[in-house]
Design brief:
The chain has 215 residues and is an alpha/beta fold. It has one domain (3-213): Aldolase class I (TIM Barrel, Alpha-Beta Barrel), CATH 3.20.20. It is 33% helix and 20% strand. It has 8 helices and 8 strands; from the N terminus they run E-H-E-H-E-H-E-H-E-E-H-E-H-E-H-H. It has helices spanning 16-25, 48-54, 71-81, 96-105, 151-164, 182-188, 197-200, 205-213; strands at 3-6, 30-36, 61-67, 85-89, 109-114, 132-136, 170-174, 192-195. The longest helix is centred in the last third of the chain and has 14 residues, at 151-164. It is globular. The relative contact order is 0.17.
Length: 215
C-alpha cells in the first residue's frame, strides 16, 4: 500500500499543532517538509527552526525536501532539527555521493530528487545508496501547477531498474496529485504520494487519504 505525505507548506500555520494532529488522525504516514531558499526556487518557505519545534509533537516520519542551492551546507542543521529523511535536488548537488554520505553521517535516511526535465540516468550510479527517489511531477517553487503525466514514464523506469538490480529504494511523487490521478500514479509504481493543498482543503481528510491509497 502506498504511503501518503501531506506537505505542511499548505497547512494553516496559525493552528499548526492542530494541523499536525489532523494529519496523523487522517492516516498520514509522513510529514513532508518543503524547504525553499528563494534562489534554487523563487519562493522562500522555512528553515530548521520550525522543524525543530514541531518534530517532537508528531509520530509521522519527517520527510525533508531541500529545494536549495547548497544542500550540503544545511543538511547537518536539518538532521539535528529532527529530520528522518532528507532529500536533495539532483540539480543542486555538486557531488551526489558526498551529499548522500553527509546525510548518512548524521543518522538520517538519504533521498534524491529529480525535476520533471531531469533524466533518471544521471542518478543510476547512486541508487544503491539512497532510501528514496522523489520524482517531481510539477516544477518546484510554483503553486497551482497541473500534474505532468509524462513523469510517470520516469517512475516506471526507476521501478524496473530497482527490480532488475534488486534494490530497495522507495519512489515518491510530488505535485498536482489528486483523487482523479491517484490510481494511475499507484499503477506506475509510486510508493509515497505527497499531497499539499488537496489534502488540507479536503472536506474529509481521512477519506481523501484513503482515496489516494486505494481504488
Amino acid at each position: 500500500m502506498v504511503k501518503v505525505a501531506p506537505s505542511i507548506l499548505s497547512a494553516d500555520f496559525s493552528n499548526l499543532g492542530s494541523e499536525l494532529k489532523s494529519m496523523a488522525d487522517a492516516g498520514a504516514d509522513y510529514l513532508h517538509y518543503d524547504v525553499m531558499d528563494g534562489h534554487f526556487v523563487p519562493n522562500i518557505s522555512y528553515g530548521p527552526v520550525v522543524l525543530e519545534s514541531i518534530a517532537p509533537g508528531t509520530r509521522l516520519v519527517k520527510d525533508v525536501h531541500l529545494m536549495i542551492t547548497d544542500p550540503d551546507k544545511y543538511i547537518p542543521a536539518f538532521a539535528r532539527a529532527g529530520a528522518d529523511i532528507i532529500s536533495f535536488q539532483a540539480e543542486a548537488s555538486r557531488d551526489y555521493g558526498k551529499s548522500i554520505a553527509l546525510i548518512k553521517k548524521h543518522g538520517v535516511m538519504p533521498a534524491i530528487v529529480l525535476n520533471p526535465d531531469t533524466r533518471p540516468e544521471l542518478i543510476l550510479p547512486v541508487l544503491h545508496t539512497v532510501k528514496m527517489v522523489l520524482v517531481m511531477s510539477v516544477y518546484p517553487g510554483f503553486g497551482g501547477q497541473s500534474f505532468i503525466k509524462e513523469v510517470l514514464n520516469k517512475v516506471t523506469a526507476l521501478k524496473k531498474y530497482r527490480e532488475s538490480h534488486n534494490l530497495d529504494f522507495a519512489i515518491e511523487i510530488d505535485g498536482g496529485v489528486n483523487t482523479q490521478n491517484a490510481a494511475e500514479i499507484r499503477a506506475a509504481g509510486v510508493d509515497v504520494i505527497v499531497a499539499g493543498s488537496a489534502f488540507f482543503k479536503a472536506d474529509n481528510r481521512a477519506q481523501f487519504i484513503n482515496s489516494l491509497k486505494h481504488d
